[in-house]
Amino acid sequence: NLHVRVDxxxxxxxxxxxxxxxxxxxxxxxxxxxxxEFFANISHELRTPITYLKGYAxxxxxxxxxxxxxxxxxxxxxxxxSDRLTRLINDLFDLxxxxxxxxDLQMDVIDLTGVLEVALKKAKIELDKKGLTLNSRxxxxxxxxxxDAIRLEQVFTNLLGNSIQYTxxxxxxxxxxxxxxxxxxxxxxxxxxxxxxxxxxxxERFYRVEKSRSRELxxxxxxxxxxxxxxxxxxxxxxxxxxxxxxxxxxxSFPIAKEVEA
Length: 262
Ligand code: ADP
Known about the structure:
This is histidine kinase. Its main location: membrane. This protein is an alpha+beta fold. 51% of the residues lie in helices and 17% in strands. It contains six helices and seven strands; from the N terminus they run H-H-E-H-E-E-H-E-E-H-H-E-E. It has helices at residues 13-61, 68-99, 112-130, 149-165, 211-216, 223-233; strands at 108-110, 133-138, 145-147, 171-179, 182-189, 237-243, 247-255. A five-stranded mixed beta sheet has the order 2-4-5-7-6, with helices on one face. A two-stranded antiparallel sheet has the order 1-3. Helix 3 runs parallel beside helix 4. The protein is globular and about 80 Å long. It binds adenosine-5'-diphosphate. Adenosine-5'-diphosphate binds at residues 162-163, 166, 189, 191-194, 202, 207-210, 214, 219-224, 248. Adenosine-5'-diphosphate binds next to helix 4 and helix 6.
């Protein structure tokens, strides 16, 4: 920690300089402890799948299983854990590029609706698997926005994926409309919901309301922080509202492309 503590009992410029230095020290310490926590999280998240991989490799190597079924089960776990590692590394790579401002966005004037429909089509398989209904109310002739089609699809896919993951029964509702100078997208589910206290934290890196459950479902806890970063890099906004046991609603907005504004 930075042990700076300036005590100047005066209300003049020198006094306010003292306050500024104290604030800066506080900020620096907070930054350092965030960084430390971030790296502690990363090593924990990377170590866990490796522990599984090594453990099951050892079991298989020493023939410590009873049946062929059991062997297959261990191999499946190893496959899943390898996939998780890949996902984690990709997510971390995305995040670090974004935070350094080094991600290259291909900003084009595009039809957001088309991108959303591609994401919905891909989500359909998972939706059907879980027996969830999809209600979509997508306005026709929504104005074009300036965005990166690939990154926008990543945003929609991620939010839809979460909605499906955290919903046992009911429906996923998707809405698109334009209002003032913005195109609005709503992705809403009738799932488990998020506790009021957790709502402000869900966009934070590695934050997961239920660690073990999210992990079981394949989550890395990085999805929403990537989503938020990507939305903001495309000049959009994202917010969430939720009722525990009722469902969750993500609201996004993107400015209408200047080139097409009347
Ligand atoms: P994860 O990989 O764990 O899904 P995310 O960053 O995507 O990580 O989400 C962070 C946490 O926010 C999740 O662990 C989950 O607890 C909560 N969450 C995200 N989306 C939803 C949703 N649609 N319904 C309920 N909870 C959600």
